[in-house]
Amino acid sequence: MQHATPAAPAVRETLERLLASQTFGRSERARKLLRYLVEREQAGEADRLKGFSIAMDVFGKDGDFDPSTDAVVRVQAGRLRELLQHYFANEGVAEPVRIAIPRGGYVPAYELNEIRLPAEAVPELRLDGATSADRANEATTGMPDAVSPAFAKPTPSVVRQLRFFWMAFALVIAMPGLLILRQGSSALLTGGGDMSATLETAGATSSIAPSATADALPLVYIDVKAEGTDASRVAASLRAGLSGFDTIDFIGRDTATDPADDATSFIFDILPGPNAGDITIELQSMASGRVLLSRNLTPADSAPAAVEDRIADMLSSALPASGTIYNYIEQTGAPNGLTQCLLLNDKYYLDQNARTHEAAYRCLENLVNGGAKSSLVYSELASLQLEAVSDHYAYPPNATIEKAVEFAHRGVQMGPTSPYAHRSYGYVSSRLGNTDEAIRWMRKAYELNPYDLGMAAAYGYGLIFAGRYAEGTPILAHAAETFSGHSTWWDYGLFVGEFMLGNMNKAVAASMALRTTATKSHYLAARLIGAKAAGQDHLVSTLLGELNTEFPKFAADPRATFVERKYPADLTDRLVQALRAAGLGNAS
């Protein structure tokens, strides 16, 4: 074995083939651990690969994790070493690069492989279309044979076939140990780990057959065509941002061939800009060639102090279900499975009512009945279950916070490094009154992907409703100002934060952004307070009529609603006083 260090692209290619292999097909935890270790090392973060950070990032442990009593990292690292040895001794015997996890640490090591397969070996068909002879040629020359272009640059369709192959062997995830909500909620979680993967749909029949395609997300590639330090910095920031979004599958290679028949594959091209020193980033559909988004970064935008904000702004516009990629998929008639459900889920948060809620819930529910294993499905179901409890939606019948806890727990089990799962768990914790837990989980979601302004908004929102208005309001305000297509709850949180800080002009502006939503009592209450502060007497009269007609229970006792929603006591008092001043009955 040679001791030269393989190039980064070769390491990434080997990692993708290894993760798609039969050897690793039955071990979800080993795949997650290996990807985490290699990607962190390749990103220059080898110093972070310690037992404590691995326990938290990969296995969902919390700040109380004690490596002296919990051996999960050591045990899983040992298992990973065994699987790597088995892979390179068998189906990966002729891989051009070998990956190992040396004992005594968790930082991966890479070496070029000198093994040659005998020329007379019987060709063995590979999933990517190449034979064992092709692999022997790779081992000798360092390059795949000219007749095997799929190996040099696997198309997304091939990558998807590989992914589906090992997904077909994947077992239901069963993480040892339970993530426990403090302050009395541990009993709810004790049974969460064994929750059935099938839901009773109260008359609805699943229309999604058990299939890996139900979990399929848009594939996103990156191709760097610009040179220089600034281009490298932009590319590194873009890769870091793309790897943190749950709503896409990021293929961490620098180039990709064009799968003209794949309507859900996209590529970010990093190109020289129109002026000296500029860098242009283009998001392109690989099926149609259409450029969906283009951003030009000046040298100031590419500077270390600014580049992450510029990339976060772009990715928050492009990657969530409300963003460019999903909008394009919906317009071209391509959504299905999880993609369709995420689009419906986003429509609910933009227009919150019983109809949009039920559409989103039923779609995700059908995915579960179809055998979906995505943490996104359970995370979003947890949030929707809580929405049903809070707003008394008819569907699903008998919604409870306990069910929301079960869904959120399953989401974290399936996605221990998922920002969406952590955000959902934080939301559930806040509704249980576990303020510290809510903040911790939402902060973790934000840390897992600081490039997603939605995670920043959730963290700011959580701080606000924990009574930490001065901390949370600037975070939420920055997110809302940066991303105009945000959900309605951002505006409500911003209203509350500015209201409690005494910034009434900003509070009024935030309340006016709620004007399209008349289906939530607390949103109408915010609009009423804003209208009163702005001296809009006619609007005050209209809103009072709506509240008394549509929400008589709230109008009679708004305090009860705020207490039920676990609002801080000072916030409850201030809101009740403001509603009384606006003329809402005998607000108590």
UniProtKB/TrEMBL annotation:
TM annotation in the entry: 164-181
Keywords: Membrane, TPR repeat, Transmembrane, Transmembrane helix
Keyword hit for Membrane: yes
TPR repeats: 419-452
Coiled coil segments of this chain: none
InterPro entries reported for this sequence: TPR-like_helical_dom_sf (IPR011990), TPR_rpt (IPR019734)
Protein known as: Tetratricopeptide (TPR) repeat protein
Native species: Mesorhizobium sangaii
